[in-house]
Structures are given as C-alpha cells and as structure tokens.
Batch of 2 targets.
Target 1
Amino acid sequence: MEDTIASKSEYFHRQDRLMSRILPNSLVIIPNNRPSIRSNDTKYPYRANSYMLYLSDWQEPNSVLTISNLNAARESTLHVKPRDTEKEIWEGRIIGPDGALINWPVDKSNSILDFENYLKIELKNHSNLYLITGINPEIDDIVQNFWNKDILDPRIYLDEMRMIKSLSEIELMKRASSIASEAHVKAMSISRPGIGEWEIQASIESHFTMCRSTNSYNPIVGGGDNSTILHYSSNSDNIRGTDLVLVDAGCEVNGYASDITRTWPVSGMFSEAQREIYELVLRAELSAIEACQVGSPWENMHRAASEVLARGLIDLGILQCSYEDAIGDNLDGDYRKFFMHGTGHMLGLDVHDVGGGRQGGKKGPILKSGMIVTIEPGLYFASWRDDISVPEKYSGIGVRIEDDVLITEDGPVVLTEMCPKTIDEIESIVGSAL
Ligand SMILES: [Mn+2]
C-alpha cells in the first residue's frame, strides 16, 4: 500500500479486533471529519478523523468507513467520493472507489453518493449499530432516518486498542519525535536577544515542512512573561535579551504526534534565578520519567513531579510553609499556584490522545507496555498575577520541560531524548548558528 506505513494486514487485524469485541451482527459506522471553512471558499488544511486513520488510513473528506460482523465475518467498506474529472481539474485527483479497494485495507468500496441506499438495506440486516456521532451531523441524520433502536458508541473499544501502540505506530512516533527534536535544536541555534517569537515559530514550522511533516498543534512560543501563559499562541512579541523563551511545539507523521517543550535563554546564558527554576523543573521531570513503569498507577508520575517541585519551592524560599502544606493532602497544596496543570497525557493519533489520564478529570489508567505518554512539569511565576507573591528575582519566569515517553517492560524509553535539555547543552547550542 503506497500511502500507509503499517501493512494492510495490520489494519485488517485492528478491524477484526474491534469486531470481535462488539456485539454480534453489528454494523460500525465511522464518518470522516468534515473540511473546515477558513473564510468564504478557502478551507483549513484537511485532517482526517483519528479513528478513520486508525482503522483504514483513509485521508479524503466526504467519506465513511463501515465494518460489519454479520454472521461472524468481517466486511469493511469505504464509501468515498466518486471520480469526477471536472472537479479533479480544480481540486486535485480523487482516489475513487476503485482506487480505494486496491490500495486501502477494506473488503469493499462504494460511492458515497450511494451511502443512503446502502444503509437502507444494510440496517435491515443488522441487529446492532455503532456510530461515532457528532463527527458529521449529515451522516447522523441519515442514520437516524433508518434506525430507531439505540445507537451504540464504538469508542470504548477503540480507545482501549489505541492506548497500546503497535511496533509500526511506535516507529512513526519515533520519527515525529526526532523531527520535532531537530526543530527545537535549530530554533535554539538561531535564538538571539530581541528575536521575535514568530521567528522561532517560523524556524520550527519550516523544519516540519522540510521533513514533510506538519504541526500536531499550534506552536507555543512565549518569551519572558508570555512563558507563564499556558496556552499562549499569538507568538507576536520580541524577546528581551535577559528573558527565557518557552517553546511547546510538536509535529505529526502519518497522523501520529510528537509533543515537546523546551525552555532556553535567548542570550545563551541562564541567569542565576532562571538556572535555579530550570534545574528544579528538570529534576521534577526526570523523577516523573523514572515513575513511568509498567504497572504503576497514572498518578505516580504526577506525584513524583509534584513532590520534587513542592520541596524545591520551599528550598528556594518561594513557599514559606511546611512541606505538608506545600504538597497538600491530595496534591492540591500551595505548590499548585505555580504548577497548575497535569504532568502529562497520552500521546498518539491525537496530541491529547484517547485513554484517560488527566483529561476530563477521569482517573488515569495503570501504565502498560506500549503506551506513550508525555511528561511535562513546569513552574510559572507571572509578574502580572496579583494573587501570588514571589521574590522579585523569579518574577516573569516560566519553565516547562516536556518529553515523550514509551512505557516498556525494561523501563521508560524517552523518544525525544535527542532533544537536549541540560543547562550545559542548551547554553552551548543557543545562538550557535548565528
Ligand atoms: Mn503536551
């Protein structure tokens, strides 16, 4: 298959695993994402739905994947745009049902224009229906016209499968990790006092594009006080020579994300205060990575990072309270004023991948071999916040360090380890390309 990295048989295996877990005589319907309008008749770059990618790697809009297990036999069908020379002259080649059947991992293919008819017939034959609703309201409406029983959600099964990465998925994520690592090193090497945040963003995105990759989310490039804003995204200020810059940027390879954060002084030299905070966050990060062990509860990574940070904040005189008050009964003590997010999340086809963790406040899973998580503690001392008081020298400092970690029986494997993070390494790289 020219356009997929995993083999056809791996995709069929995923389809079979899903169909063996759900009820017999079921039809599963996975609509692809709709294109998003940017303005008038221009669109945002298209991104296929992650479940569609996981089960078939199909990347054209206006398409639906169905999988049946009627009489215990798998039958997967891609319903896709038909060929249309007139349209193709303007918008590019369309693969069409014939191309889909030859090169994609499905048993059948149809024109999406016949989808309503297909459903009318097939839904009579099936006893259960699984649909991911909300992806494409048009498809939801069509389904509801022909089905008056319960609509079941296949994601419970799919999410569990997606949490454990296969060897081919791990290969793609290694590639995404190394491209993003190189991008961060390049951005460090061109940094200089006064550089625009957008210049760092441009350097990173240019590297992604050169590697035939793309952002897995909008890069965060925040200098000085902007580094204390967790989802800062305007990337529009110049960075003062004495300031740190926090860069949170990752890329996507065949849909699979990397997610890296590094923080460095644009001058190439950490001040004493910056160094103290940086070293503390780095110790917290290393301790959380060490907690990435098979069989560990998800909370252990967050606890490991939190304990180091709470103690360090007392040692630096930023928190003037007992360790018990700093850490809190439920990891909710005073240290949360400066570390207000989770320590990590699942990573995969979605940058905040399925499977729990700190998303939505759900209890995280027990770590298993083949999971990939991010570890990303940070400390933020916004000078504009009037609800905190910190020694003047720390004011305006924000530091986060984030790596992508594969859980294995032999311990954590840091997929982003080629991205430097010690103070010595960073100081020697910053500005080296100028
Ligand atoms: Mn992240």
Target 2
Amino acid sequence: MVAEDGRDRPVRTCVGCRSRAVQSDLVRLVAEGTAITPDTRGRCPGRGAYLHHDRRCFELAERRRVWSRAFRARNEETPTGWDVSRVAALFDDIPSDRTRRDPDRVGMSGPTSRL
Ligand SMILES: [Zn+2]
C-alpha cells in the first residue's frame, strides 16, 4: 500500500539468502494448506514469506527447510512435507541455469545442417 511514491517502501528478508530487499524485488509466498504458492499479486491473506526471484535463493530455502518456520503460525500441526512445486515452477523458465537440458536444440543449432 505504501509503495507508490517510492519513499516508504517496505523491506523484507529473503528466506533463502537472508538478505534484506525491497519488497517489490521479492516474490511473496503463501501457504495454501501444504502447498506453497507464489502470491504474485501480493494480496493473498495470511502469513507470507519472501524470496528473491532467484533459483539459488529457492534452493537455499529448501535446504534450510525454512517453510515450517515461515508458515508455522497458521496451523497447529506442522506439515511434514511442503509442496513447493509451484514455487519451483517459477524458476523453470529461467534460461540461466547451466545444467539446462534442451534436447530440442540438438541438431538444429548451426548452419552445418544443410546437406
Ligand atoms: Zn535471496
């Protein structure tokens, strides 16, 4: 609500790398049951966690199992497993991943394919 004039921008902590960033640079995540869901409009109710739009931060958060801590307030019982597939999908189309496998490009990448 305060972001419009750029003066009073809220700062949040990324659950992955733990560094602070302006909220608009982060993706807000909310828990729907045990499914962690990117709240792209920033309007879902409930407790949110913030993550850089960066696969490394997501992997860090995964490794540290931050989800239970980030979302624990809602339910008494902490789910043992979180479904992070929707969050992972955020990073699926980022082409900077060095281990990206792309079989479609094999054979059609160069001018040498004319016979
Ligand atoms: Zn981060």
